[in-house]
Amino acid sequence: AQSVTQPDIHITVSEGASLELRCNYSYGATPYLFWYVQSPGQGLQLLLKYFSGDTLVQGIKGFEAEFKRSQSSFNLRKPSVHWSDAAEYFCAVGVRGGNTPLVFGKGTRLSVIA
Amino acid sequence: NAGVMQNPRHLVRRRGQEARLRCSPMKGHSHVYWYRQLPEEGLKFMVYLQKENIIDESGMPKERFSAEFPKEGPSILRIQQVVRGDSAAYFCASSRDNSGNTIYFGEGSWLTVV
Q1: Of B55, B100, B108, which is closest to A97 when you measure between CB atoms?
Q2: Residues B55, B109 contacting (CB under 8 angstroms)
Q3: pLDDT for B76
């Protein structure tokens, strides 16, 4: 079965600084990979996804993520963080085909300071 | 095109009462997933349904919890005889098919058991 690890529970960055949120997955084949963002009291919004092709994927709000097969990673990056980016970020892994639901990591809470 | 609709958004129940959470998937989506989010934890898969069928209920507690997705109407997650530990956010998501494609989340239903 697939699994996802987000090693960082909480990260604090200064506004304008760069950001990288880590995600490692465990799955025998090439998975589908997703990043979702959740603001307090809200549902999850899809930031970006990787299915195949170019390993660097662009998402909404200036985010990007890179799939690295050799490292089983799908880290999320943003060159310059805005205060409105403060939220919880979830990485998820899906399986190609079949009836297997997405598996989520425990999330990384991002705080942004002035 | 309306997104995934969940209601109620907030629900308060006394211990021993029943909670019913409703989810209407996005238009054109016939696959529904329920996830539970406990404080400081990620999303835990509960159940995956297609119209009139339960595909995977491996994440749902064997007692007191049930889910359905009838031919007509929304999907229902039902919790009987609620206990304090059932207090959580319950998220519904939907997808067009089961190919591992993107799932889209609703805003969630926050259940508080007093």
Answers
A1: B100
A2: no
A3: 98
